[in-house]
Amino acid sequence: MLTTPIDFEAMAETLARSPDYRILRRLVARSPYVPTAGQEVRTGVLLDTETTGLDHARDEIIELGMVKFDYTPDGRVVGVRDTFSAFNEPNRPISAEVTVLTGITDEMVAGHRFDAAAVNAFVEDAVIVIAHNSGFDRKFAERYWPVFEHKAWGCSMSEIDWRKNGFAGAQLGYLLNGAGFFHQAHRAVDDCHALLEVLAFELPTTGSPALTLMLETARKPTLRIWAEQTAFELKDSLKLRGYRWNDGSDGRPKSWFIDVDEVRLDDELAFLRTEIYMQDVEPDVQRLTAFTRFSART
Questions:
Q1: What Å distances lie between residue 186 and 23, 46, 178, CA to CA?
Q2: What average pLDDT does range 31-47 have in this prediction?
Q3: Residues above pLDDT 70, as percent of the chain
Q4: CB within 10 Å: which end of the chain, N or C, has fewer?
Q5: Residue 227 β-bridge partners
Q6: pTM over 0.85
Q7: CB 98 within 8 A of CB 118
Q8: Domains of the chain, residue spans
Q9: CA geometry: angle at 272 spanning 268 and 275, to 5°?
Q10: d(Cα 217, Cα 187) in Å, to the nearest integer?
Q11: What kind of fold does domain 8-219 have according to CATH?
Q12: Short-list 245, 267, 270, 247, CA closest to 258
């Protein structure tokens, strides 16, 4: 008996037209494309690391994934140029907790070492490196490969207000679902492919890709205010305001700090003078750009 092939795509399209259903498609990584001569594009690199722990000064990278892609000056993804995926055997056995979190075992990384020349060549022509937690990944990447110290960095997690743009949160899986996809990530490079689709997704609030908004934010300077020598009993007020604590172990001040844009600087200094110090003070202010933001050197 002959059976008619099921047209799943037609079924999906029918369901998508109903307000009672949402369709998620399995993420299929984009194949590398051939750039068109004369087309104005810029090259970026999406990066993800898996590590043996959270301490960028002592823990080790056990996996590096990267996707190199081209985009137009206004932030529209044009295509994937290349991908990079590599394991690295650490000096100590991978803990059971890290294996549960990453799926990476000692057997998978045994005998593997990063090729520094290959990493350098891959990122050499990129004008920006983007991670979904650049405050974490940049510190590790710079320790291993100094080439990353000289790159502009963007953070797709912190440099887009995802909730304001209709998403439930900034976790990559939530964002991918919101963009209409699901994936079964196994390697760091899989998360880079997922991030590419998230950044290519057109935000309903702006009508532009998420990458456009992230690039606009990354290009603006920010100012880091260090609220040093504040009274302990005022910590809740600082935390409520968005200040974070630095314990001084990284060579930076043992102090509360906050990052603001230039528009908010005067208001933030006024808050410190009237609510925290109760006097006219001049807190230390650092100017950060995409070339210094998220770096351990800052």
A1: 23, 17, 20
A2: 93
A3: 99
A4: N
A5: 256
A6: yes
A7: no
A8: 8-219, 222-288
A9: 120
A10: 28
A11: Nucleotidyltransferase; domain 5 (3.30.420)
A12: 245
